[in-house]
Amino acid sequence: MSRLTLNKSALHREREQLKLYRHVLPSLELKRQQLNIELQKTKKALDERKQQAGELEVMIADQTPMLANREISLSGFVNVTDVITGEDNIAGVKLPNLAEMKFHLQDYSMLGKPHWFDLIFVKLQELSRAEIIVTIFEERVRRLERARLKVMQRINLFEKILIPETLQNIKRIQIVMADAERAAVVRSKLAKARH
Length: 195
Known about the structure:
The chain has 195 residues and is α+β, with helices and mostly antiparallel strands. It has two helices and two strands. β1 and β2 form a beta hairpin.
C-alpha cells in the first residue's frame, strides 16, 4: 500500500473512497442474497431431478423384467451423440441449461430381437436425458456456490478491511490537520505577542 499523505487532498480522496465503498456494499449484499435464493432453488431442483431419475430407473426395472436375461445385450444400442447446452444469466453468473440432446439408435433386426426392444430404447433415452439433466444441475450448483463464495469474499474485503482502513486514514489525517491548525494558531499568537 502506498504511503498516506496527510493533507486536504488526501482527506478528500479518502472520503470519496469511503463513499464509494459504502455505495458498492449494498449491491454486493443484494447479489449475495440473490445467489443464496437461486442456490436454494437449484439445490431443491437437483434433489427433485435425482429423485425423478431414481424413480425412472425403478420404473424401467419394474416394467421390463426381461432385462434380467443376460443373453440379450443392450450395450451400444442407444448412444448419446450430442448434448447442446444453453446458458442462463442469473445475478451475473452464467449457468448451463439443457437445450437439446441427440441420440444415435443402433439399427437392429426386428425379427432377430424381441418385440419389447422399441420400448426399451424409449426408456433408455428417457433415463439418459434424466441423468444428463442431473449432471447439468450439479454443475449449476457448483457455479452458484463458487460465485457466492467470491461475493462473500468481496463483502468481507469491504466490511473488514477497506472501510475500516479508510476510516482510520480519515481519522489520522483529521488529527494531523487539526494539530497543524492548532500549531498555526499558537504560532500566530506568539508572533502577535512579539510585535
